[in-house]
Amino acid sequence: MKTTYYGQSTVEIELSNGTRLLFDPFITYNPLAKDIDVKSLKPDYILVSHGHGDHVADLIEVQKNSDAKVICIAEIANWLNGKGVGNVHGMNIGGGFNFDFGRVKMVNAIHSSTMPDGAPGGNPAGFVLYVEGKQLYFAGDTALTYDMKLLEDENLDWAYLPIGDNYTMGADDAIKASAFINCKNIIGIHYDSFDVIKIDKDQVREKFIKAGLNLKLPAIGETLDL
Which residue intervals define the domain Metallo-beta-lactamase in the entry (predicted)? Predict the structure, then answer.
């Protein structure tokens, strides 16, 4: 199993059978991802945490180019239906579903959610994936919340946590979140794309090391083994 980082919160997970899961596609409008060709992304599934433009800007284009099934909260599913996207699976917080690649559970996130055209985006969410014998947590955009303690018994192998501050958790709260969810392997997301979420990578790495955590901050386009 591998994961590739495309900037901001856009990550892809490739399973051993070749199935590709893409999260929160935002590439075209991210200057840091200028070397990524959005047309080259051909996921089988797209998972959407919430409706803000820096998470869905390329959603419809990628979906049309790949015919991927979109997994998202019900309100975003309805919005996509209205845009002519029919290959959608709507969910809601606390619910899970068994897909052909594994199980997905939608979990709470503390944030806001509005679609780029002003339509309501439902509640923001995170995802827990049970795939190929591993448990992965994609937190989406969220504050530190005590609800994360509900994941401490999930035996999470990896967690994607926002660390950019201002709009989401910063590094200090992400370290607390790592303890709440009982996961030591962290991939940082939602940082550096805008001035207000730029981080000092060396300082952040040092904080995670002192906390006994394995933090990965992959370069845009870099692939890691999970």
Answer: 7-190
